[in-house]
Amino acid sequence: MTTPYLFRGNELLIFKFITSKSIHIPALCHIETKVVYHYRAPNSFRVHFYTQSGKIGHVTLNQKGAFDFLLLQLRRENPQLSIFMQDR
Questions:
Q1: Which of 72, 56, 53 shows the shortest CA–CA distance to 64?
Q2: Helix count and strand count (H, E) for the chain
Q3: Residue 4: is its pLDDT beyond 80?
Q4: Burial class of residue 34 in the structure, from the number of CB atoms within 10 Å of its CB (0-12 exposed, 13-18 middle, 19+ buried)
């Protein structure tokens, strides 16, 4: 299931099933990305967000364009952000 998100100022709003969560982008120290391979469906992309204190949330995206846009916007808002790619 894709998690919708929205940029508002220097925050990222993640809309979960019923609630929403606000992530302060300058507080992020790194993110981890992972491609989730599916046998019969298109691949999805999972992004985990971390601050100095640990993991604070994640989103799952089913479209590569949405994934690329999210990473581009996060790098634009926080140039010191480290991005780690996990393979499987």
A1: 72
A2: 1, 7
A3: no
A4: middle
Which tokens hold the place of 53?
A: 């204190």
Tell me, what's the pLDDT at 62?
85
Domains and CATH numbers, the chain: 5-86 (2.30.29)
Write the pLDDT tens digit of every residue in 12-71: 888 876 777 888 888 899 999 999 888 887 888 999 999 999 998 888 888 888 889 889
Classify burial at 41, counting beta carbons within 10 Å of its beta carbon; exposed 0-12, middle 13-18, buried 19 or more. Answer: exposed
Contact call for residues 25 and 12 (beta carbons, < 8 A): yes
pLDDT for 33: 93
CA atoms of 37 and 59, how far apart (whole Å)? 16
Cross-strand partners of 14: 5, 21
Tell me if 62 sits within 8 A of 42, measured CB to CB. yes
